[in-house]
Amino acid sequence: MIIVPGPASQILGVKVARLLKSEVVNVNFKDFPDGETYVRVEGELNNKDVLLIQSTYSPQDKNLIQLFLLIDAVKQMNPARLRLVIPYFAYARQDKQFKKGEPLSIKVIENILEYLGVDELYTIDLHEPRVLDYLKIKAKDLSAMRLFGEYFKKRNLSKPLIIAPDDGAIHRAETVAKVLGSEYVSFDKFRDKDTGEITMDYKKLNVKDRDAVIVDDIISTGGTMIKAIQMIKSQGGNNVYVAATHTILIGEARSKILSAGAADIIGTDTIPSEISVVSVAPLIAEQFRGV
Ligand code: R5P
Known about the structure:
By secondary structure, this protein is of the alpha/beta class.
């Protein structure tokens, strides 16, 4: 298998290649003076099994265009098969028409991937994995939650309670809790579609003098995590750790979460930053080892 790491996932791509002991092909990229995107795959892919890895975090549109151009470049080099990993999938949260007149953005992206000839698609902790059902090609959502469980195991937490900020994320809390052999619970969260304001129903927790880990797929504005931290702290929780696969952390989100009382914020390298202390490389490598 040959790994093609897109510009947005270069280090992650190399880490995956090391774990799989696979060859890496360099991608040359730049912007033309007018801002248009240039990519070139520097290597031979003829009849090879290709794994392209490109995340689509901010600037999402730029990273998506790079991805589309890379797929075309790879396809023109006659690979035996093109499998694609999109660690952070932009537009995945626009997975339904919330208001009349809106597009179904995720489906638009998926249609383009199919049209360009991707053979298989892999994502990580999609907000709603059912959106993969729109695809005719093989598609699978992987989860980094087990990796978070292993990470927190090493941090020796005190009687940890694993918390999902809303019921939709309860399965994530459950996976982390299983690794730690601890309890898990979820809050009930509501977001105002117009203002984005978050409210959370009060929930009595058995968290006094215990550590807590709040797990989610995404931290964007930080509003969800802040509400959850306040709920835990107001009931005597000890250290509150915040972990999410995709740490977008818009504007002052990071400092606001820490000011709300979080002991630490832990992310992965689907969106690389200094808080990406958990790498999803082993998760991706595990999926493709020997296949
Ligand atoms: C939505 O339900 C997601 O799972 C996350 O909880 C949400 O995207 C986090 O957004 P924010 O950080 O802006 O509250």
